[in-house]
Amino acid sequence: MSSASLAGGTSLYGGGFTKLCKGLAVVLFCGHAAVLIFPATVTYLALIPSRTIPFAWNLITAGYLEQSTYGVVTSIIGLLFMGRLLEPIWGSREFVKFIFAVNFFTSLCVFVTAIALYYIKTEERYLYLPISGFHGILAGLLVGIKQIIPDQELPLLRIKAKWFPSIVLLLAMALSFFIPEPAAYIPILVFGTYMGWIYLRYIQTRPETKFRGDPSDDFSFASFFPEFLRPIINPVASVFARLLCGRSGASTNSHDYALTETSLPGSDSAEAARRRERGARALEERLAAERLTAARSAEDDPQRDAAANV
């Protein structure tokens, strides 16, 4: 994520949506249209745990298949608006890598969870429930928003961006008591959020430095929880981090901490701060451009009305 790419992304995209996000939106729309026209599409493209072994491509296709109209509308809107902020900052290539990785590993985790639930509860519905949807990737993108502009507030609700992923998961779990088959939605959201954090925390490549990920305290797993729960969450999170990331995560963090102590240029703590500053600046410039466009449109309207009356 270079400053050049940021500046280029801001000036080129302005307040509009990126071509990549528009293309992905078309894929989501076509997938939903295929479900409406050919209902059997769900059988071949959705994640059905009992059929995943012969139909392994389900681990990829399920994330781009929306079965409900509400789901496809929500996914397209979320993709367009979050993508126009994150893609110019990450770059198109990294944006695609993030979506692919989060989608695949979320589907893999959902598959393993469904098999485990079947053996634990001996209920066959976990094997034959068609699971699909882009909401796992949207949950991962919310984690990217949390990383880039954690202190940016939602205009009406006054909620900081760093709490978006946690609030979405909390609301989803609350709604799970009132919607049928919550197993088709909740695991995707949970694993999408976690996989998004894993990717950004340990894997994401940053060309301007020699390091991967974001080991800053502001982006730790405990940062998803309120302050009073963090002493409990931190030990548990460290165990899972060692299990999932092995020595590479530990060595990267120790190296990063050494850099932080010596305050060398390009250290990850300083780079995380610069990343957030660039994200906030890009967002402010985009909002300013949109306000300017709206103001010009408002000025042009009376002129058009006057011309029409003449």
TrEMBL record:
Keywords: Membrane, Transmembrane, Transmembrane helix
UniProt topology in membrane: Multi-pass membrane protein
UniProt-annotated location(s): Membrane
GO biological process assignments: retrograde vesicle-mediated transport, Golgi to endoplasmic reticulum
A single GO cellular-component term on record: Golgi apparatus
Keyword Transferase attributed: no
Segments crossing the lipid bilayer: 24-48, 68-86, 98-120, 126-149
Pfam families (UniProt xref): DUF1751 (PF08551)
Signal sequence, renumbered to the chain: none
Biased composition (Polar residues): 256-266
Residue segments, region Disordered: 256-278, 291-310
Keyword Transmembrane: yes
PANTHER family documented for this protein: PLACENTAL PROTEIN 6, RHOMBOID-LIKE PROTEIN 19
Record's protein name: Rhomboid-like protein 19
